[in-house]
Amino acid sequence: MNITGKLFIDGDWQQGSGGTYQAVNPASGQRLDPPLSQAGAGQVKQAVAAAAAAAPVFRKLSLQKRADFLNACADEIMALGDALLERVMAETGYPRPRVETERARTCNQLKLFASTALKGDWLNARIDTAMPERKPLPRPDIRYLNQALGPVVVFGSSNFPLAFSVAGGDTASAFAAGCPVLVKGHSSHPGTCELVAHAIATAVKKCGLPGGVFSLLMGSGREVGAALVSAPEVKAVGFTGSFAGGMALAKAASERPEPIPVFAEMGSVNPVFLLPGAAKARAAQIAEGFVASLTLGTGQFCTNPGMVIALDDEATAVFIAETARRLAEVGAGVLLNEHICSAYAEGIERFSAHKGVARVAQGKAAGDSGYYAQAALYATTADYLVANSEIQEEVFGPVSLLVKCKSVDEMLRVAGMIKGQLTATLQAESAELAAHSELVDRLGLRAGRLLVNGFPTGVEVCDAMVHGGPFPATTDSRFTSVGTTAIARFVRPVCYQNFPEALLPDALRNHNPLNLMRMVNGEQTRAGIS
Amino acid sequence: MNITGKLFIDGDWQQGSGGTYQAVNPASGQRLDPPLSQAGAGQVKQAVAAAAAAAPVFRKLSLQKRADFLNACADEIMALGDALLERVMAETGYPRPRVETERARTCNQLKLFASTALKGDWLNARIDTAMPERKPLPRPDIRYLNQALGPVVVFGSSNFPLAFSVAGGDTASAFAAGCPVLVKGHSSHPGTCELVAHAIATAVKKCGLPGGVFSLLMGSGREVGAALVSAPEVKAVGFTGSFAGGMALAKAASERPEPIPVFAEMGSVNPVFLLPGAAKARAAQIAEGFVASLTLGTGQFCTNPGMVIALDDEATAVFIAETARRLAEVGAGVLLNEHICSAYAEGIERFSAHKGVARVAQGKAAGDSGYYAQAALYATTADYLVANSEIQEEVFGPVSLLVKCKSVDEMLRVAGMIKGQLTATLQAESAELAAHSELVDRLGLRAGRLLVNGFPTGVEVCDAMVHGGPFPATTDSRFTSVGTTAIARFVRPVCYQNFPEALLPDALRNHNPLNLMRMVNGEQTRAGIS
What pLDDT shows up at residue B222? Predict the structure, then answer.
């Protein structure tokens, strides 16, 4: 499979009319061949029109065929073989094992959404049967079913070139819901985007779906994304990236003549609360896990542990010393692109400029070529954090801020002032966890996922995952972007009153042909209606 | 129970510091005693702070106690007796049977949310158990549960002084979710608001809940509502009312430092498609149902049938003639207030000013005193509607627009150009319904509820109801404001990773003490985990 630099629009590969650019290998700073084309305004319109035309067809496609399509996407990605792995490595600087793991996760995710689409719990099928004799008024037959919203725009992230990109979780969940997807691929890994788009395009063809079900539109500036979000036919947006990027999309979407929902996952600092008993019992062991989590993928995870809250005591001193010893052995890691590299440098400068913030540990220095990051741990006090709240802003990369507290009460106060987070972690002994349930409760108000004695990196793709959380971690805490309930972002309920059986969707027919768990007259059941 | 004109804030009745005003009897135009006070800025702050303080407590309250509280609210409303009915009648001009029906609906709704809270399906409890042996990485134990968002502001509507007001569906669903509620009551029925607030206040006290769980704040201007929506502690907004009002709230909420979700139900014209077979078979009978639905409650329903789409043929002529005959017998109806009365007059003027729109039927003329509406049916052609799309705007009150089409294809075209709707109705014979499934599909893209051979007024409160729909009917089509899934507006998921059993919420404990239907390792079950 050669990379051609073309875009996939309305079932065809087209040279983009918006000029060309080249991808860059971040490990070397070298440009990668061939030049890649960018979408012009007319091409965005064509893709959107095709998606709108495909939407009513795809919406009605049987769950089985939708599952077949998702499974086919996974199979075709695997069929890309080493060409895909090598391009991802060249465009991201990630080592092969990381890329292989991410590919497996991406394909498993597509397959999970295939089985989820089939199981149909997300349809939330509900039936209240007629009560013609009810007084004072009869009750009509009423049936409820979630259905696809319509065309969805997905913005790929930089840090997950496969799992949060062209065929990532947003795309998989939108497909499962029955929504056509228009992907604005991230310009940090455009060749990867094209390869994965080939896989989806092949699956679209093999499954006999309308070409408009999927489009890939690239562009290194903001024009393509802005045109997509303002297109009237687009009904929702999925995004993973920076706070500024997510907020710009949310603003644009809310100012449309018809506002549309934007689910933007914008990252967080993922505080780790190191309770005194745990620190005393296993400071060195926790430091080992912390350094591994902090530096994994050069710290380029939304769930990177960017803040540690601990007592200012001897056990924390051991934690710092062990972190320093381990971090000193960690080589500079490759960052994904020039922008992330300069933002990381600025973030480090911001910490350094604060007189109440001191560096207490660091990794090996970066060389001169390519985009590299030197890992670091900074430290401050709870008082200083409270007085300088801006230092809780995320710095994307392998850096964390240790907040020293005079007491557990002060740790509680920090838990009460931190912003909305994707995750919050407790390192704690069993007995002290029970004693500090107030801390657990406070963190539950601030985060989408709470962890005990683990580290936040590593987001399991499963039914029970929440990868979301209160603002500013996301634009809408009611949804998640990872896990099977991610489908809920892209559906809306429709109810049918007094409909003849023959016109009802299969999911709502009397004899329950899809064998769904349904809410029938107030009870969950798979039984049919006589 | 005497009306005092006070506000309920932080568990106490207070004289509002924002001046006084008087309610008006719309049937006579006379002011009603006593003068009623309005909230000052400091009182809004106090109420919000109390709600924020109550939120973590209410969030953790057992489902049984939450249900007890909702049932107590219903009981205390009934205990208000005739005093409530009479005040509603005086403030709205609604006749006693309408008010009794609405009271019953309101209390049944509170009880339905009590049983829904207890059943716990809305918690969406999910458990993926640990797989310590999984390769390449073990899976941790992960558990998912929906939880209360935090304090919710509810704006009461003018047209449902009980069912969409102080103790209406927004309040009931927010309480069921575990959210404190701050009600901005509608100034069209302030005495009613106070009486119902007394009922809730009594229930709060009897159930031993923190005073901040519920507040009533009144104000005839926009200041109180604006202050509530901008308060940082407020986490969501429910609103039923005009398009302009809903959009202003949505804008304010999106421009906060922390944007919050607004669920605004903003009405629609609820098109009724009169298919030719049905018109031929039963034009006169359909006209009878149509006139009853159009003039019910002086047309002051969000689901009032404001548009009829039919062929320009002999059967439609019969429908018009029969509508005209029946409408001529309908007396002028009371409108809720001066503002609605003048807006109705302006809407009628807008129709009259269009040369392509003609009046084809009308009710009896209004008198000189009070706020009354003369019902009417106007007619136009599909071509004229397409060229003058603004005439599809809702006119709140007993008026509808008949759109004459040259063919069923033209009816299809109208179905493709109408805006988002709460409801869409088909009057059709069985055979022609099956033949026009394309029309059903198109309407499914535009509406939240589809009806066959009924009329859209009369919104059943049940598990399967959708009272929502695509913009501009609402600000977020993914949710409904009537029916038990309305709870979903006010919860967000939190997941627990590797949590000790003792710290998990009851809903997620191994032995399933609440006997919930849960998704355990991909399967719906009530079984516990060993």
Answer: 92
**Of A122, A458, A464, which Cα lies nearest the Cα of B144?**
A464
Reference B147, options A150, A443, A403, A190; nearest CA is: A443
Interface contact B505, partner A, CB < 8 A: no
Q: Using an 8 Å Cβ cutoff, are A156 and A186 in contact?
A: yes
Each residue's pLDDT tens digit, B108-127? 999 999 999 999 999 999 99
> Please, which residues 72-131 of chain B have a Cβ atom closer than 8 Å to chain A?
101, 115, 119, 121, 124, 126-128
Question: CA torsion A213→A216→A217→A219, rounded to 10°?
Answer: 160
- Give me the catalytic one of A76, A102, A233, A265: A265
The tokens describing B234, both together, are: 């407020």
Q: Supply A483's token pair.
A: 């896990």
Helix (H) or strand (E) holding B431: helix B430-435
- In degrees, rounded to 5, the angle at the alpha carbon of residue A238 between the alpha carbons of residues B479 and A294 is 120
Q: What is the pTM of this model?
A: 0.97
Contact criterion met (CB < 8 Å) for B452 and A524? no
Which helix (DSSP H) or strand (DSSP E) does residue A258 occupy? none
Chains A, B: CB contacts within 8 A come to: 208
Residue ranges with strand state E in A288-396: 307-311, 333-334, 358-362, 372-373, 376-381
Residue A518 C-alpha, separation from nearest chain B C-alpha, in angstroms: 11
Contact (Cβ atoms closer than 8 angstroms) between residue A464 and residue B143? yes
Predicted ipTM of the assembly: 0.97
Chain B hits for A426, Cβ within 8 Å: none
- Clarify whether A394 is annotated catalytic: no
String of b and e for A29-66 (b: at least 16 CB within 10 Å)?
eeebeeebbbbbeebbebbbbbbbbbbbebbebebeeb
Please indicate whether, in this complex, the C-beta atoms of B140 and A258 are within 8 angstroms of each other.
no
d(CA B57, CA A48): 47
Among the partner residues A139, A434, A524, nearest to B121 by beta-carbon distance: A524
Render B319-348 in DSSP notation, one character per residue.
HHHHHHHHHTTPPPEE-SSHHHHHHHHHHH
DSSP H/E element including A456 = none
| Beta-strand relationship, B12-15 and B6-9 | antiparallel
Phi-psi domain of B515 (left: phi exceeds 0; alpha: psi -120 through 50; beta: other): left
Place of tokens 């607004």: B262
Angle between helices B190-206 and B63-79 (to 10 degrees): 130
Angle (CA) B53 B55 B59, round 5°: 145
Q: Choose, out of A59, A476, A494, the residue to mutate when testing the contact with B (most B CBs < 10 Å).
A: A494
- CA gap A74, A199 in Å, rounded: 8
3-state secondary structure A396-443: CCCEEEEEEECCHHHHHHHHHHCCCEEEEEEECCHHHHHHCHHHHHHH
Among this protein's residues, is A302 annotated catalytic? yes
Picking from B452, B503, B268, B511, the residue whose alpha carbon sits closest to that of residue A426 is: B503
Each residue of A272-329: pLDDT tens digit? 999 999 999 999 999 999 999 999 999 999 999 999 999 999 999 999 999 999 999 9
Structure tokens belonging to residue B124: 């969406």
Euclidean distance between CA atoms A506 and B430, whole angstroms? 18
Q: Is B365 exposed, middle or buried (0-12, 13-18, 19+ CB in 10 A)?
A: exposed
Contact in structure between B75 and B106 (CB atoms under 8 Å): no
Q: Is B55 helix (H, G, I), strand (E, B) or coil?
A: helix
Burial class (CB in 10 A: 0-12, 13-18, 19+), B403: buried
| Whether B207 contacts chain A with CB within 8 A | no
Q: Exposed, middle or buried: residue B512 (CB in 10 Å: 0-12, 13-18, 19+)?
A: buried
pLDDT value of position A356: 97
- Residue whose pair of structure tokens reads 């003329």 in the numeric block: B365
